[in-house]
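Researcher: Please predict.
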Amino acid sequence: MPTLTQLINKNRITKKFKTKTPALLKNPQQRGEIQKVFTCSPKKPNSAVRKVVKIELRNGLIIDAYVPGEGHNLSKHGAVLIRGGRTPDLPGLKYRLIRGKYSFNPVSDRKSSRSLYGTKKPTP
C-alpha cells in the first residue's frame, strides 16, 4: 500500500481498457456499404461455409462482418447496418449485420427468435 507522500508525489493511474469493437467508435451501430460478399470456413472442430461481407463504413474504415441467419440477398454496393458481436469460430470477425434494415432482407418463414432476424409476427 502506498504512503501518503507517495500518493502526493504521484497519483494513482486508472487502467485504460481497450474496446472490443473499435470500428463502431463507441456507437451501438454503424452504417456501411458492401464492397465484397464471400464465404469462409470456420476453425477446427467445426465445418461449414460461413457467409461474410467486406464493408466500408461511413467513417472510412473497412471491416469484415458476419451474415447471420439462413440465406441472404446481399450484393455489392448494398447499404447495411452493423453491430458488435464476434463469431467465435471465425478468427478476426468482431461484427455482425442487422437483418431487416436498409437493403438486407429479414429471414423468411422464421418462427422463433424473430427479433434477431428482422421477421414480422405471422398473421394467424
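Model: The radius of gyration is 20 Å.
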